[in-house]
Amino acid sequence: MTYQDTYQKWLNSPALSAEEKAELEAISGDEKEIESRFFAPLEFGTAGLRGTMCVGLHNMNIHVIRHATQAFAEVILAEGPESVKKGVAVCFDCRNHSEEFAHEVCAVMAGNGIPSRVMESLRPTPELSFAIREYGCIAGVNVTASHNPKEYNGYKVYWADGAQLPPHHADAIAKKMGEIDIFTGIRRMDYDEAVKQGLVTVMGAETDEKFLDNVMGQATDKAVVAKVADRFKMVYTPFHGTGYKLIPEALRRLGVKHVICVPEQMVLDGNFPTVVSPNPENPEGFYLAVDLANQEGADFILGSDPDADRIGLMVRGPKGDFIPLTGNQTGVLLLDYVIGAKKRMGTLPANAAALKTIVSTEMARKVCEVNGVQMFDTFTGFKFMAEKKNALESTGEGKVIFSFEESYGYMMGDYVRDKDAVTASMVATEMAAWYYDRGMTLYDAIQELYAKYGTYEEKTLNLVMPGVDGLAKMAKLMAGLRANPLTEIAGVKVLTRKDYSTGIEEDLTSGARTGMELKGSNVLKYKLADGTDLVVRPSGTEPKVKVYILAQGDNCPAKVAAYAAWADTLKQ
Fold first, then answer.
1. What's phi and psi for 315, nearest 5 deg?
2. Is 403 a catalytic residue?
3. pLDDT band at 45 (very low <50, low <70, confident <90, very high)
4. Which pLDDT tens digit goes with each residue over 411-434?
5. What is the CB-side half-sphere exposure of residue 179 using CA atoms within 13 A?
6. Is 162 exposed, middle or buried (0-12, 13-18, 19+ CB in 10 A)?
7. Alpha-carbon distance 112 to 120, whole Å?
8. How many CB atoms are closer than 10 A to CB 502?
9. Nearest Cα to 220, choosing from 433, 452, 398, 450?
10. What SS3 class is residue 486?
11. How far apart are CA 356 and CA 380, in angstroms?
């Protein structure tokens, strides 16, 4: 079918409401808009679905939600009756339509005879991961678009271990979606009827308490928090999202007396009225928090994204202004602190291990080497970290005490298998209090770590390739880098080249080719003669190619600038 055929199918479908038909009729003369909405379905991957909210095959709406859920239900049914009985956990964030979409997930699952447990109201993503494990569910769905702008929503899928879906299950769902008609292939039950029949159970405060009990188990040194509690002040913002309740509660249970929340951003609102983007990676979103911290005399600001799986930190610098920490800097600070705190308390496992992604700072490896902790790399995404954690701990090879990726995600403990802003907020605050007791801010702390472990600097560039031809441009770029292998970048010799799609590492000096443990992902990594690592990979959720610059040693800013200029040429 052409995109026009698909448009007409939708326009004529009795499944559409009058409002939905009116929306489609309004674009009848706009060929470009029709093409953008109907040229192809949203691609279902290991991260599920994500797109803008409007009526169309390539967008997030109730019909796409039902379609994906029917496909997911059929994959679950294929697991057999015992798996089906375990049911599915469902969660949603603050975005427009998220609760409606979540209830539709339950309605379709019920229509297929699969019970579900749904949160009574919006909750953090890590609590969904926890609930899957706690209640022994076969799978989970979270309706969220994380830190994307207000126009977006998403559909994250999880399996029984509480991690996002492994590739073979994601492929099975994508295949089913290709076989099921989006309108006539759906089996569903009215949501309220499903509740009456006991096919939907609502989760509330009891699940919150179980989750928080586990979160508080990650506190290592509550005594130091108590010691500084009268003087230590911090500012917190949830950016209008799901962290608004459990994160301040966890901090109070830690013993922090002065948790000063940004009142304007404690308001739950899927339009995110106070920020352009509700992303804790973007320091400009912290302007209200900075004003409040200056008024209150706080040195530490913490923000969580709308689904509360990532955190960003702002810390007071030597000139009195607030400076954002990168995800890598926060990860290294937390890693060093967790190791040190466990050593002080005598709780560091003999086979302690940490995990990071292949695009995250190599400074973390240095921290582990110096402290006698094993460090393992994984592909980008916490499903791979969950897989590696399960593998290491099942064989006794390592006990994972900390996992992180550069995009502001951190995981601790055994009760979740995804990044967790609630636990990370609690541990980061304990860390800030510990340094505060030493007369230091976290800016001072990262400088101390650079003096101890060496200087590192990282930068991520996003080569955005939007539009219908964006995917083709991304594929062409990656194919070109493989067809014409780079021997130097920005005038610096390439020493080794790793292609994670084939799992082959090539030494350009000797010509030797060796196999790697990690393979099967569309990623290229280069080791350069000046010690820099450079990684190129297409995003799995957005129309862009990411270039990661991981510099170390002397003159890092100049290295980063040179490689950033080179990366910019890849768009041409």
1. -130, 150
2. no
3. confident
4. 999 999 999 999 999 999 999 999
5. 11
6. buried
7. 22
8. 13
9. 433
10. coil
11. 9
Strand order in the sheet with 233-237: 258-261, 233-237, 300-304, 311-316, 322-324
3-state DSSP assignment of residue 23: helix
What is the chain's percent helix, strand, coil content, to nearest 5? 40, 20, 35
- What's this model's pTM, rounded to 2 decimal places? 0.95
Which two tokens mark 366?
């240095």
Q: What tokens appear for 34 in the block? A: 């029709």
- Rg (Cα) of the chain, in Å, rounded? 24
What whole-number distance in Å separates Cα of residue 467 and Cα of residue 475?
14
Q: Of 214, 441, 250, which is closest to residue 329 (Cα–Cα)?
A: 441
Predicted pLDDT at 36: 95
The CA distance from 25 to 27, in Å, is 5
Q: Any idea what DSSP says for residue 150?
A: T
Catalytic residue among 146, 360, 403, 425: 146
CB atoms within 10 A of CB 47: 20
**DSSP code, position 165:** P
Phi, psi of 245 (to 5 degrees): -105, -55
Concatenate the DSSP letters of all residues of 329-372 into one string: HHHHHHHHHHHHHHHHHT---TTEEEEEETTS-THHHHHHHHHT
- Using CA atoms, how far apart are residues 308 and 347, in angstroms rounded to an integer? 28
* 542: pLDDT strictly greater than 80: no
What is d(CA 35, CA 6) in angstroms, rounded to the nearest whole number? 10
Report the distance separating Cα 112 and Cα 47, nearest Å: 23
Helices 3-12, 18-25: crossing angle, 10 deg rounding: 150
* Tens digits of residue pLDDT in 451-500: 999 999 999 999 998 876 888 899 999 999 999 999 999 999 999 999 99
437, amino acid identity: D
| Measured distance between the N- and C-terminal CA atoms of the chain, rounded to whole angstroms | 33
Interacting residues of 129 by C-beta distance below 8 A, sequence separation 6+: 140, 158, 162, 163, 416, 417, 418, 420
Contacts for 324 with CB less than 8 Å, ≥ 6 apart: 283, 286, 312, 313, 314
Query: CA 196 to CA 131: how far, in whole Å?
Result: 22
Q: Phi first, then psi: give them for residue 236, nearest 5 degrees.
A: -130, 140
Residue type present at position 101? F
Secondary structure (3-state) at 437? helix
Report yes or no: 67 and 55 within 8 Å, Cβ to Cβ. no
pLDDT surpasses 90 at 532: yes
**Tokens representing residue 355 in the block:** 């995990």
Q: Is 121 helix (H, G, I), strand (E, B) or coil?
A: coil
Residue pLDDT, tens place only, 319-355: 999 999 999 999 999 999 999 999 999 999 999 999 9
Q: Which residue, 221, 238, 445, is CA-closest to 329?
A: 445
User: What tokens appear for 156 in the block?
Assistant: 């994250």
Structure-block tokens of residue 195: 């509740």
Single-letter code of the amino acid located at 124: P
